[in-house]
C-alpha cells in the first residue's frame, strides 16, 4: 500500500509568503495541516484555498509544543514540516517516494538554503535539517526545536529556499526564548551559537562575540554545526577588533576544518585585518592570504553544513582578484575576476569594467 504524507505547518500572519510555500509543495502531499497561532491577516483564508485542515492554537512560547500539536492532527503515515517563509525549489517527487517506500525506516534531512544580507551583498548559507519523518515522531526544544528519533537520518535530494531572515529579524521573539533556554542549559553550546546569530543581525557584535567565545570553548567538535560556529567566531573576532584572539583559533582548527572552504575564506579576511592592524609585526603573513584563498578554491563549494555559497568559488576568486590588484599584479587580478564573472558575480564584472577603462 502506498504511504501517505502530510504537510504540517505552524503559522502566524504569513499572508506574504504562504501561497508561495503551498504552491511549491502541494503536488507532493496528500493533506495539508495548518496550525494558526493567532493570525490577524489573510493567512487562514489563503490556507483554505488549498483545502488545508486549519486548527487554532494558543501560542505558549514553545515551538516544540506547537509543532507537536500540529503533528497530532495528521492522518497520514508521514509528515513533511515547512515554515511559511520556506519553499521547495527542486523536483523532489522521486526522492520523497523513495524515502516513504523504503522498507528500512529512516528520517529525511533536506538541504535548506538560507538567504541573508552580508557585508558583500546577498549570501546563501546551506544547512541540512530533518523535515520528513514518520508521523509518530515528535519535537523537543522551546526554540530551534529538534525531532527526537533513533531512526537513521538520510540526506535527501530535497532543496528548500528560506528567506525569512532576509532584511528582517525575529529577535524580539527569539532572543527571550533563547535566553530562557540558556538559563536552563548553560553548558549547551548550540543555544549560544543560535543567540549569537540574533545578536549579529542586530549588529550587537560584542554580545555575539561573547556568546560565540563561550560556545567555542564548549563544543566537542562532533557537533554538525561546529565548523560554522568556528567560522562565525572568527567573523565576530574581526567585527570587534580583538584580532589577537583569532591567532590561536586559526592555528588550532586548520586540521579539523581542512575541507571547509569558509574557514580558509574567513581566515584570509582575518589575516588581512591582522596585517593591517600591525604591518611591522605581521607583514610576513601576507603570502598566507593568497594560500588561504587558493585552498578555499581547491576545496570548492562542497555543500558542507553551514557553508556559504561562493566561499569556494566566485567570492574567493573575487577576493583573490582584489588581493592581486592591491599588490599591483593586474594580470592575475583579471584572471580571478574573469573566473568570478563566469558565475555572473556582479562585483567582479564591475571590476573588470573599471579595469577596461
TrEMBL record:
Its EC number is 2.4.-.-. GO terms for molecular function: glycosyltransferase activity. The keyword 4Fe-4S does not apply. Keywords: Glycosyltransferase, Transferase. SUPFAM superfamilies: Nucleotide-diphospho-sugar transferases (SSF53448), TPR-like (SSF48452). SMART domains: TPR (SM00028). Residues 6-124 form the Glycosyltransferase 2-like domain. It comes from the Bacteria. This is Glycosyltransferase. The lineage of its organism: Bacteria, Bacillati, Bacillota, Bacilli, Bacillales.
Amino acid at each position: 500500500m502506498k504511504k501517505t504524507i502530510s504537510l504540517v505547518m505552524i503559522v502566524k500572519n504569513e499572508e506574504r509568503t504562504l501561497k508561495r510555500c503551498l504552491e511549491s509543495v502541494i503536488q507532493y502531499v496528500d493533506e495539508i495541516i495548518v496550525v494558526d497561532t493567532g493570525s490577524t491577516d489573510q493567512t487562514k483564508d489563503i490556507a483554505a484555498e488549498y483545502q488545508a485542515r486549519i486548527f487554532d492554537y494558543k501560542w505558549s512560547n514553545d515551538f516544540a509544543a506547537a509543532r507537536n500539536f500540529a503533528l497530532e492532527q495528521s492522518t497520514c503515515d508521514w509528515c513533511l514540516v515547512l515554515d511559511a517563509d520556506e519553499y521547495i525549489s527542486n523536483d523532489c517527487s522521486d526522492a520523497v517516494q523513495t524515502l516513504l517506500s523504503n522498507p528500512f525506516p529512516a528520517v529525511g534531512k533536506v538541504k535548506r538554503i538560507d538567504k541573508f544580507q552580508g557585508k558583500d551583498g546577498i549570501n546563501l548559507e546551506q544547512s541540512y535539517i530533518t523535515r520528513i519523518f514518520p508521523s509518530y515522531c515528535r519535537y523537543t526544544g522551546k526554540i530551534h526545536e529538534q525531532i527526537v528519533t533513533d531512526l537513521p537520518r538520510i540526506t535527501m535530494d530535497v532543496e528548500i529556499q528560506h528567506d525569512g531572515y532576509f532584511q528582517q529579524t525575529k529577535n524580539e521573539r527569539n532572543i527571550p526564548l533563547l535566553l530562557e533556554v540558556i538559563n536552563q542549559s548553560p553548558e549547551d553550546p548550540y543555544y549560544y551559537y543560535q543567540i549569537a546569530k540574533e545578536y549579529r543581525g542586530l549588529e550587537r557584535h560584542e554580545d555575539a562575540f561573547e556568546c560565540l567565545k563561550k560556545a567555542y570553548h564548549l563544543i566537542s567538535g562532533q557537533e554538525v554545526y561546529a565548523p560554522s560556529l568556528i567560522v562565525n567566531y572568527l567573523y565576530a573576532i574581526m567585527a570587534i577588533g580583538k584580532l589577537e584572539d583569532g591567532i590561536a583559533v586559526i592555528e588550532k582548527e586548520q586540521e579539523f576544518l581542512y575541507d571547509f572552504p569558509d574557514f580558509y575564506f574567513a581566515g584570509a579576511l582575518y589575516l588581512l585585518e591582522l596585517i593591517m592592524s600591525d604591518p611591522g609585526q605581521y607583514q610576513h603573513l601576507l603570502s598566507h592570504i593568497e594560500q588561504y584563498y587558493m585552498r578555499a578554491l581547491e576545496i570548492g563549494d562542497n555543500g558542507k553544513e553551514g557553508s556559504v555559497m561562493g566561499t569556494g568559488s566566485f567570492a574567493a576568486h573575487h577576493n583573490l582578484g582584489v588581493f592581486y590588484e592591491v599588490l599591483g599584479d593586474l594580470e592575475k587580478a583579471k584572471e580571478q575576476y574573469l573566473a568570478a564573472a563566469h558565475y555572473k558575480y556582479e562585483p567582479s564584472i564591475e571590476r573588470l569594467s573599471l579595469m577596461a577603462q
